[in-house]
Structures are given as structure tokens and as C-alpha cells.
């Protein structure tokens, strides 16, 4: 079983990605992997104490355990008691388990599948508890949270510890702890290799499938959410591309291993993205397609360079006009973060992209599935039902 989570990937993201990927030279609007695999929708609200808008921890707890909890909970109930996760159930059946993510491996979603904690913010404690999970594959970022002493404990337990993506090729057997960045992996839009999550996914499948009893794998496109929090459409679409590529890796795996189930969903919606804004009935995909670096990276280079205007135009893929140039000049004098915000406002205005919040919203999210029992996930359901259905498909305990 493979569960893939597009963190923050509300329905507007998959629609935007369809248009972002569209070939304007053809009459039809081409389908994406999300269009091919769509089967249903899911509600995401947390335990009633937390209202209607979930955070990643409560939603991941629901997807991992089948129970609602409070925002911030890592696989514990509202009384902070541990809840049994699908990964624990898989381990009890002799199956292998793994996580491959683009955030730190001890971030809310992977943490809720592998550990238990009363607060998602207890990063060091969660990292230490990952040792107890006995997961066969742990791949992502988060080096800063794993002390030398902790890494030594992982090594003593048989884990191969790697810190460079190039080292993945040398790993041919579980177990592996791969920590490829201090915190998050690079943004896809800034990365020379836009298929990092695909590589992590493929390696996870190669390693976990060695167990004849089967496996449960979590793959998260974590940074879709982070781009949404930043209200950054160009970076978000690049993250969607990276996640879509990873889903296609799993699609190919299932064609070769038809006894494998894939379920893809989002934990919640982030940013309140709208395709079209300011009263205009249009959305310009050509503009975000032409941006070659994240606004954060563009701002960093612009602050450091003397002849910064030419560099900004080149990385944006268009020449800013005199009014926009004045806005950027004023913002640059106030520092990187102010300049980054100014760049995103220009991108949004020109592309007719809208946002309602820098946080989460409470809209339902989509559910996608492929493989045996994919029909179970059709229609409307709660996120806890996704966990319950996947758990029901696990082998019986001997």
C-alpha cells in the first residue's frame, strides 16, 4: 500500500496544475495524473475542540490512525494518549514501512505515521522516537534535528545513514536513514534536479518491495503547502509538478505489481488559492511557466547584485514596467522579505492569481486511487475513513 499526501493541495491546486501543464498549441486541455486517478472527496476537519480548519498534524493523525484529534496532535487522541497507526499495524504483520518526504522527516505528516507526541513542535523528541518506529526507509530533510548521538543509535540498529542524494544508488537493502538537507529539500523551481521526490519514491519502492509480506509507504509532497503559505504560485506549481512526477512513478510500479494499492489525497487546503482574481475572467499560465526561480531566490540575488534589475527581469521571464520597477526598488531598500512579497504581488496581479489567506482553509480535498480496492475510495468520505479502509485491507494477523 502506498499513501501519497500532497500537503496543502486543495482542489484549486490540481485544477491550476492542469492549466499550468496545458499545451496552448492544441485545441484540447490535456489531462493530468490527477484527472486520471480522481475517485472522490474527503472532509478534513479536526476534533471538534479545534473547530473546522485542520492543521497538518491533526489531519495526518486522522489519515494514519482513523481518529480525529486536536490541531498539533501527533498520533495521539484528544487526551494525548497514543493511537495505533497503520504503520504499527503493518509492522505487527511483518510488513515493511517507510516514508519519503520533501520537508524534514520529523515534520507533522511523517511524524504522525511513525511516532506519537502531544505536539508537532517537539521536533527533537519526534526524531528520537523515529528510532522506535523501526521503519525500513526514512528519506527527506531534517539533518538539524538528528544529533550525532542519535544518528549513531540509528547506525547501531542497522540503519545506513546517507546525506547526499547521489548516495541513494549505493543503497540496495533496507534499512536507510537519508537526511538530505538541514530542514526542507530545495524548492523544485530552484533545484537543478526537479525529480528528487520521484527518486526518493522509486528507491523506497525498490527497497520495501523486497519484503514478500508487503509494505506500507507514505510519500509526501510537503512543500506544496509551504508554497501555499507563502502565497507563491510559481513555486507551488513547480512543487505540484514534482509531486505529479512521483505519482507517475507509482503508477508505473502498480502496472508491474498489480497487487499494490495507491491512495493519493491532501491533508487540507492551504492559502485559499483562486484561479482568476480581481474581477477578471482569466488566468495567465504563461507567466508562472516563464519564471525560472522562486521569488525568495530572486529576491536574494537582487539584494546582493548591483545591476539587479536585469537579473530580476531574466528570472521572472518578463520585463517589469516602470510602476512595478519603482515598487521593487522601494521594497529592495527594506530587505529581502519585503522584496519577495513585492515580487509575488506583481506575479499575482499579472497572472490573475488570488489568495484568501496565508494559512489553511476548511474545504474538502480530493481523493485519487489506483489498484485493487481503489473503488472503496469513491465518493464522499471523511479523512478518517481513508485510514479505516486502508487498515481493513491489511493482511490478517496470524
UniProtKB/TrEMBL annotation:
Binds 1 Mg(2+) ion. The active site is at residue 56. GO terms for molecular function: alkaline phosphatase activity; metal ion binding. Its cofactor is Mg(2+); Zn(2+). Mg(2+) binds at residues 7, 107, 109, 220. Keywords: Hydrolase, Magnesium, Metal-binding, Phosphoprotein, Zinc. Zn(2+) 2 binds at residues 7, 225, 229, 267-268, 360. The keyword Magnesium applies. Zn(2+) binds at residues 225, 229, 360. Belongs to the alkaline phosphatase family. This is Cold-active alkaline phosphatase. The gene is scap.
